[in-house]
Amino acid sequence: MPDLGKYAEAVLSAYAVSIVLLVAIVVLTVWRGRKVRAEMEAVERRSARNG
Amino acid sequence: MSLWEYANPVKFLRLSERVQPWLWWGAGICLVVGLVWGFFFTPDDFRQGSTVKIIYLHVPSALMAINAWFMMLVASLIWIVRRHHVSALAARAAAPVGIVMTLIALFTGAIWGQPMWGTWWAWDPRLTSFLILFLFYLGYVALWEAIEDPDTAADLTSILCLVGTVFAVLSRYAVLFWNQGLHQGASLSLDKEENVADVFYFPLLVCIGGFVLLFLALVLYRTGTEIRVRRTRALMARETRGAPLQAEEA
To answer: What's the CA gap between A38 and B76, in Å, rounded?
Structure first.
């Protein structure tokens, strides 16, 4: 760990906030993408069954 | 082969799924390498101390916040001129990513500004235009959510995007022509005298590459999701229309 001196709090909080936001957008994007894909496949199967 | 072929959702999805693994891996590698390099292996600045390490998050996110809006502008213009649904959906898909980039730029800017300027916030031209850009992003997403008909929503959000471009341009160039704020000049410049020192510049470039690749990966993935939402709605609408007919036949 580098010695961040008196600015340690500022630097670490900038990294923490940014990494949380980046991880959040990736997780939410993939989670919604999978949910939508599953819904679409279910509707496609139902449509194929009903002709 | 023409670029417009990819306005076809099936072709777009096929290409997008082929390209995405490269983008995700590239983004991950660049971000890890760039941030680890910048955080652990670069020296403190003689004036700003260790706060200079915030540059590896602040500059790439600010750059992407503005460029995301320009990408949305191009996609919106394609929608207005050529009525390709994929382009309208790509603009919609990019907006939340732009919001996150703007939020990171605003947060890291405030955190960096406090020890350097003695204040979290100042009504400086660049900071203010960035805040307005953030509000435009929120308004853009809200407008998409508020209008039920997707074509009308795409029309109105495209117009909003054109208007918001003024603030995206201001955010980008405010430090150049509005020489009266706290915010410093551009960190990256073609003029070597104005550029940050090489020891900060190279990890910064890697981080910028990581943010660009992450943005592209997210936008392609989210555009695919929007295309699937649209298809699901179309199938369900067809089912609903077909249901009374089936009831009559029975």
So the answer is: 29
Residue partners of B3: CB distance under 8 A and separation at least 6? none
For residue B207, which of A16, A19, A2 has the smallest C-alpha distance?
A19
Residue B223 has pLDDT above 70, yes or no: yes
Interface test with A, best of B100, B216, B218, B223 (most A CBs within 10 A): B100
Q: What is the ipTM of this complex?
A: 0.94
What was the pLDDT predicted at B194? Answer: 64
- The SS3 call for residue B45 is strand
A24, A30, A34, A36: CA torsion to nearest 10: 80
Closest-CA residue to B51 (of A9, A27, A20, A1): A9
Helix residue ranges per DSSP H, chain B: 9-41, 55-82, 85-117, 125-146, 150-177, 198-249
Query: In the structure encoding, which two tokens stand for residue A30, read together?
Result: 């993939």
Task: For tokens 């900060």, name the residue.
Answer: B200
For the residues of B161-187, what is the DSSP string, one character each? HHHHHHHHHHHHHHHHH-TTSSS---S
Q: What is the pLDDT of residue B244?
A: 59
DSSP state of B196: P
Q: Which residues of B touch A15 (CB under 8 A)?
A: 35, 39, 53, 57
Please tell me the distance in Å from A6's CA to the nearest CA on chain B: 8
Residue whose token pair is 């203010």: B128
Q: Is B191 left (phi over 0), alpha (psi -120 to 50) or beta?
A: beta
